Amino acid sequence: MDPHWIAVAFGTVNSIRVVFYLPQIVAVARSTSGARDIALCTWAMWALTNGLGAAYGALVVHDRLLALSFALSLLACVLTMALTVVQRLRWARGLRAQGMARAVHSPSASPT
Q: 66: burial class by Cβ within 10 Å (0-12, 13-18, 19+)?
């Protein structure tokens, strides 16, 4: 049995996989609750795995398409993590602002 079809299938699916990151990236970008349900440690592991896959493709098997598909997945993972951090910082800043506004407008905060 010729294993060439496995290489073609792997390359095709791995390249298409990049598109499937988009719904997660959009969801994180639209989050109004700090993207708290995103596990950064999981995304970091996926980024590491994709980075190693890109290096393996480029340096070990000298397959540019394989390296590119892993590099694009790495980019998608890093983008997801960066957006998550930005959303969490915005959310925390909003909570702090709400807390300050409540303290300023609270009846107990008024001098008597």
A: buried
* Sequence-distant (≥ 6) Cβ neighbours of residue 45 within 8 angstroms: none
- Cα(first)–Cα(last) distance of the chain, in Å? 88
Spell out the alpha helix ranges (H) of 1-112: 4-17, 22-30, 40-55, 64-105
Q: How many helices (H) and strands (E) are present in the chain, helices listed first?
A: 4, 0
Query: What 8-state DSSP symbol labels residue 39?
Result: -
For residue range 64-91, list pLDDT tens digits in order.
Answer: 988 998 999 999 999 999 999 999 999 9
Structural domain boundaries of the chain?
10-23+36-86
Under a CB-based contact definition with an 8 Å cutoff, are residues 42 and 80 in contact? no
Separation between Cα atoms, residue 20 and residue 27, nearest integer Å: 12
